[in-house]
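Project channel, design review

CF: Before we commit to the Paenibacillus albilobatus constructs, I'd like one complete example in the thread so the newer folks can see what an input/output pair looks like. Taking Arylsulfatase.
RD: sounds good, go ahead.
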Amino acid sequence: MSRKKPNVLLITVDQMRYDCLSIAGHPVVETPNLDELARTGVRYDRAYSATPSCIPARAAIFTGKSQAGHGRVGYQDRVPWNYDHTLPEEFAKAGYHTQCVGKMHVYPARNLMGFHNVVLHDGYLHHNRNKHSIPVSEHYDEVDDYLQWLRRQEPGADLTDLGLDCNASAVARPWHLPEKLHPTNWVVTESIDFLRRRDPGKPFFLWMSFVRPHSPLDPPQAYLDMYEDAEIPHPPIGDWAMTNDPGLEGYSPTASRGIVPKRRLKKATAAYYALITHIDHQIGRFMQVLAEYGELNDTVILFTSDHGELMGDHHLFRKSLPYEGSARVPFIVNDPGNRLGLQRGKVVQEVVEMRDIMPTLLHAAGVPVPDSVDGDSVLKLAARGEGQNAAWRTYLHGEHSQGNQSNHWVTDGKEKYVWFSQTGEEQFFLLGEDPQELHNAVQDEDCQDRVRHWRSVLIKELKEREEGYSDGERLIVGRKPLAVLSHIRA
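CF: and here is what came back for Arylsulfatase:
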């Protein structure tokens, strides 16, 4: 009976912006296979990562919880992952053969998190490269399956051979080895091998988890060639953004802010787009093989990214900030066999989030959703003839602890209010008419009622938080931010 359930394929990429889909109107990026998933499926145009960095975003995917529920409200490595209900665990209990290929970013690194098997490549993580501060069992030489495989092909190879830091968002160069050895190709090669060795008597849940387009920006030369001469649009610069760079921060290869030399930024952006097209083509490769195995029409597919990449927007880079380039992500559901009655080609405007992945995929498979889950199934927004009246959240609260840049934000996809908890700075964006967040309208006279409304929403959201950001009447500036809440350290 379990074999009658659909296979479930979750495809995630790391650090892909919401707008880098040609079907969403990007003037340069080519994503033909993702376009096809959106054209014949449902695209969620207002998808966000509530805590936009790798660890908390993946905690939301694994648990279906909000950031207050899973407890990771910033980026902090080496905090054990112990959750009662996880996405792969629920599938395994329901009779699925479960497999992850690629990035997990959990702790300990080889924690199965409910999967039957994990073929791991987390990319370069600083905490497991430091030989002087970690147990041998957590060192990258021990835990990373891609690196072990790569060294069998190229003796002595390492993740640092290109000289690019894993956070070098404004520096790029082409991949130096044959394309088939690139980590993007490896994820698909290993995923195809799973199709060969899976239990044919069970449906499968496969999480195909790419490390790119997260830096290092190292696309194969053929993909970089596609964009090097393209007319790449300049990043948007808001009236609130930095106007000069006295510390020359933009010259650092790992700059998180600053004015980067134009030629360097153009090449980095070209490489970022090239990595996305490379992933797109490899997804197409996997879809071909899935069809050859006769499983395509029996598979429900969800594609998304864990967070975005600012890539120079407002002279900012990487993630963790509340702006659209950082927090907003692509999100597509496709059902080739038409099992779910989705309205194909629909573009959904309601706000969805990482916590919605677990209940969506369990719903698609007819597997009960645990009571611990805070998210909801996005399928109710996509069903033919039903989505318009589906009850849904009216706003999303997002945040990220990050020193002086620690922030909280609330949005309904049309407006966004931002509060920086350490400085008290506020921002307000009318996303409907200003989608690139070019104007901070927080002082505009005709916006004061809306600013007060959203401030009151955030005050209520934070009232019970242990940091003391709110007393229920006002926001309190300067409370010490936490990356991890106390209830998951117990």
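RD: helpful, thanks. DSSP finds twelve helices and 13 strands in the chain.
CF: The first strand starts at residue 7 and ends at 14.
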